[in-house]
Amino acid sequence: MTNLTDIQSNNAAPLIPEPVSYLDSSEFAALLSQLTKDFAETAADFDRNSEFPHANFTRLHQHGLLALTVPTELGGYGATLSQTRRVVSAVAKGEPSTALVLVMQYLQHSRLQQNQAWPLSLREQVALDAVKNGALTNALRVEPELGTPARGGLPKTVAKRHADGWLINGHKIYSTGIAGLTWLTVWAHSDEAEPKVGSWLVHRDTPGIKVVETWDHLGMRATSSHDVIFEDVFVPEQYAVDVRPVGHDRTSELDTKGVLWLSVLLSSIYDAVAQAARDWLVQWLHGRVPANLGASLATLPRFQEIVGRIDALLLNNKILLDSAAGGHVPLESAAQIKYIVTSNAIKAVEEAIAATGNPGLSRHHALERHYRDVLCSRIHTPQNDAILLAAGRAALSGKPRGAAV
């Protein structure tokens, strides 16, 4: 298993420029633009083959971007939400599956060093592994019997006491990025007389972990969200990082600021997919010249209106996402950002599909892939019904709305 000494002695880490000035520089903007272009060139292949985009993550690591939200004192960029959103949007416009795995990485590291439930040595180990080696991490929570933990219930995955640690047994599904992950935060319950529930940190190379390649999805096909089986996977005692009695609060759960980061970054993925669809449509309209018209479809008022409608939806998204990332949206409204932005993104791509007809649905064109990808925005927690129910209850409770952060 990787340890802190191994990580610190590794000289493969990228040299990260001064974070404060570099992340807001024209040089960094040019890098993001190039990443969008380069990732877009191979996105169709990753989608077609349902193949994890290892090359994209190698590229991101070369620029230190897998450590974007790792604090500067540990060698990362310590990026703000606004800066992180820019990176996610640029990557997602090129290849959204890469961006989804990246968002999970950013969410984990944006909160990790403040999580006092984790031993300091483990927090630093995971962070430095990201900085030096580009190690990816994600939480594995969803199960066949339980579904998503956001809907309530206890995990079936069990941690049994064993010598100086635990043995993990269980079955996780929708394990986003598993083909590239190094660190797995596994949600489970203990087999004690008074069970505890929480997270056990597991290194991917630990014996007993089996990946079953079940991910064959409509969209976001390159996320490698396969099933993972744990069979007597040994976890040292100190790697039970946030395990508490049932009913007790756990620091690993998202607070209101965590929900804001989740909503903004997830929404930015699918807004970027809609941006890519919009750009494809504009290019297609300019290139389509019917013989009976003698000019491109871009000259027709009907198509100009459609593009205008799409741009209005995306402008709405940009203003909302930028405002939220800048702290100008009440924290309790964070989940509604996801509902609004992803709904607009889906509608924008549907407008493009309706405008193009058969070409838009052809697998020879990128628009069909963008449509499949954008529809996946609906599956992420929190789902639309939960968002609207919570918002409605809050509105009808008579409680005053809070201020922005």
Automatic annotation (TrEMBL):
Keyword Oxidoreductase: yes
Gene3D superfamilies linked to this entry: Acyl-CoA dehydrogenase/oxidase, N-terminal domain (1.10.540.10), Butyryl-CoA Dehydrogenase, subunit A, domain 2 (2.40.110.10), Butyryl-CoA Dehydrogenase, subunit A, domain 3 (1.20.140.10)
Domain Acyl-CoA dehydrogenase/oxidase N-terminal: from-to ranges: 37-104
Keyword annotations of the record: FAD, Flavoprotein, Oxidoreductase
CDD domains: ACAD
GO-annotated molecular function: flavin adenine dinucleotide binding; oxidoreductase activity, acting on the CH-CH group of donors
Record domain Acyl-CoA dehydrogenase/oxidase C-terminal: where: 273-379
Top-level taxon of origin: Bacteria
Domain Acyl-CoA oxidase/dehydrogenase middle: 143-233
Positions of transmembrane segments: none
InterPro entries: Acyl-CoA_Oxase/DH_mid-dom, Acyl-CoA_Oxase/DH_mid-dom_sf, AcylCo_DH-like_C, AcylCo_DH/oxidase_C, AcylCoA_DH/ox_N, AcylCoA_DH/ox_N_sf, AcylCoA_DH/oxidase_NM_dom_sf, Mito_Isobutyryl-CoADH
Cofactor (UniProt): FAD
Family affiliation: Belongs to the acyl-CoA dehydrogenase family.
PANTHER family noted in UniProt: ISOBUTYRYL-COA DEHYDROGENASE (PTHR43831), ISOBUTYRYL-COA DEHYDROGENASE, MITOCHONDRIAL (PTHR43831:SF1)
Name this polypeptide is given: Acyl-CoA dehydrogenase
